[in-house]
Amino acid sequence: MIKTRIFAVLCFLLFSVVFIFNTESQDNFDIRTIDPTDMVSPSENERAMTAYSIGTYLMHQNRLDEAENFLKEAISLDPAFVDAMDHLGIVYRRQNRLAEAEEIYLRSIALNDRNRVPFINLAVVYRLQGRLNDAFQMYRHVVITHPDDPEGYFGIGTIYYIIDDYDNAMPFFDMAINLYLRLNSALVYNAFLYKGMIYFNTGNYDDAVVYLEEARKGNPNNETIEWALNEMKSSR
């Protein structure tokens, strides 16, 4: 049972890291689709906007070194360009340059502490560094300042999950699920997965199957889901 539990945790942590990267990649991303109305604070400097647009495109293509150069150029042209800072932080994080990612996110927050994006991304950096309390505080800030955003609730749920505090994790995943469904967001399947794994880890296999089957719809061929479902099937 102990070996099974350890394997479950390792598989799930691996999924969590993969999910962090996959949620930011868009294979069909088109530079022409960048809409200033979707940005936090579009730059009034046209050259900065051009550099940002190219850097964002390259980031989505995972051409990280090139993306870094263009995003840095955008920031140099407009030192208050928080959108460029937030994307540069993603580039740093994908390159495992976590200290630099933290620095640029803190810089973005100092310029606009109502922008939820750097708080969420900084929480991910802190999770990768093992700084769970710091990550929790970032997610908590998002919940307080943006109560209709599921990401804060989902993030707090994952922190409680990591420390095996399932009783506290569950209501945050429930809130995240409700908000994701309201937004018609595919990210709801990841909340289903966490909730299913809580039921699995606590031996409530009937409910675990329900949520893992739902999670499978949005995460086809996910090894953690298939492993857990097979484990429950073989134990019956």
If helices are DSSP runs of H or I spanning 4 or more residues, what is the number of helices?
12
Give the CA-based shape: elongated
What is the CATH class of the domain at 27-112?
Mainly Alpha
CATH superfamily caption of the domain at 27-112 = Tetratricopeptide repeat domain
CATH architecture of the domain at 27-112: Alpha Horseshoe
Task: Please tally the β strands and state the result.
Answer: 0
Low-confidence region ranges: 1-29
Secondary-structure-derived class:
mainly alpha
Largest sheet: none
Average pLDDT, all residues: 88
Q: What is the first-to-last residue Cα distance?
A: 15 Å
How much helicity do the residues have? over 70%
State the order of secondary-structure elements, H for helix, E for strand: HHHHHHHHHHHH
CATH topology type of the domain at 27-112? Serine Threonine Protein Phosphatase 5, Tetratricopeptide repeat
- Tell me the fraction of residues in β-strands, as a range: under 5%
* Radius of gyration of CA atoms, rounded to a whole number: 19 Å
